[in-house]
TrEMBL record:
<keyword id="KW-0012">Acyltransferase</keyword>
<keyword id="KW-0808">Transferase</keyword>
<dbReference type="Pfam" id="PF13302">
    <property type="entry name" value="Acetyltransf_3"/>
</dbReference>
<protein>
    <submittedName>
        <fullName>Putative acetyltransferase</fullName>
    </submittedName>
</protein>
<dbReference type="GO" id="GO:0008999">
    <property type="term" value="F:protein-N-terminal-alanine acetyltransferase activity"/>
</dbReference>
<feature type="domain" description="N-acetyltransferase">
    <location>
        <begin position="28"/>
        <end position="199"/>
    </location>
</feature>
<dbReference type="InterPro" id="IPR016181">
    <property type="entry name" value="Acyl_CoA_acyltransferase"/>
</dbReference>
<dbReference type="InterPro" id="IPR000182">
    <property type="entry name" value="GNAT_dom"/>
</dbReference>
<dbReference type="InterPro" id="IPR051531">
    <property type="entry name" value="N-acetyltransferase"/>
</dbReference>
<dbReference type="GO" id="GO:0005737">
    <property type="term" value="C:cytoplasm"/>
</dbReference>
<comment type="similarity">
    <text>Belongs to the acetyltransferase family. RimJ subfamily.</text>
</comment>
Length: 218
């Protein structure tokens, strides 16, 4: 069975290390972002420009400028501050202890709603090997467990079939189409809205992956 290793003094379920889950590519874990991640983050983001740019919000300046190592410390400071406030959970996805992507849970709301959105990306060199699916499963279980959420949303462009497959493998269902929802790559793009609630997860998302043969517990 996988583990949750949580720190003290933070928001519910944060900081935490999640996993492991073993996939055909190797062992997948999630850990909090670190200030020393800047160099690897920059290298991965620049190398994956062609695979990430079509799906991510429009930014100011060129992709290369926005993803220089010097851009990481201020971004990390914002992520760390919002994580302490309990509005975001920023994780690094590791494969066999190597940084290969990120998973973020954002816009966390409490009270009567108890919801958030979930997003993720993985190095294109490791695409199609079940890494994102395993990472999302770990994130879902953490959100519906220690974090105490009831609902998770995910938005995906209709052309992004790979990301849709990840969500469907976990049990997310499509709720509708958000027309001209987000400014992506300098155009307002439609997005499909997917959602999952705690009642729809039988046991845990990680256990469901193991039962389906897509992963195993180490």
């Amino acid at each position: 069975m996988f583990r949750w290793l949580s720190g003290s003094g933070g928001s519910p379920g944060w900081p935490a290390t999640l996993g492991p889950l073993r996939t055909k590519a190797g062992t997948v874990t999630l850990r909090p972002v670190k200030v020393r991640d800047g160099k690897t983050w920059s290298e991965l983001r620049i190398r994956n420009q062609n695979s990430l740019l079509p799906w991510e919000p429009t930014g100011v300046g060129s992709w290369a400028d926005r993803h220089q190592p010097a851009s990481w410390p201020p971004l990390f400071a914002v992520l760390k501050s919002e994580a302490k406030r309990g509005t975001i959970l920023p994780f690094v996805i590791e494969l066999d202890d190597q940084y290969v992507g990120q998973l973020t849970v954002g816009n966390i709301q409490r009270g009567a709603v108890r919801s958030a959105w979930i997003g993720y990306w993985v190095d294109n060199a490791h695409a199609g090997q079940g890494i994102a699916t395993a990472a999302v499963a770990l994130g879902v279980d953490h959100c519906f467990g220690p974090v105490g959420l009831h609902r998770l949303d995910a938005t995906v462009q209709p052309a992004n079939e790979a990301s849709q497959k990840v969500l469907k493998n976990i049990g997310f269902r499509q709720e509708g189409l958000l027309v001209r929802y987000m400014d992506v790559n300098k155009r307002w793009r439609d997005h499909m809205l997917f959602a999952l609630t705690a009642e729809e997860v039988v046991g845990s998302a990680a256990e469901a992956l193991v039962r389906s043969g897509r992963a195993s517990f180490r």
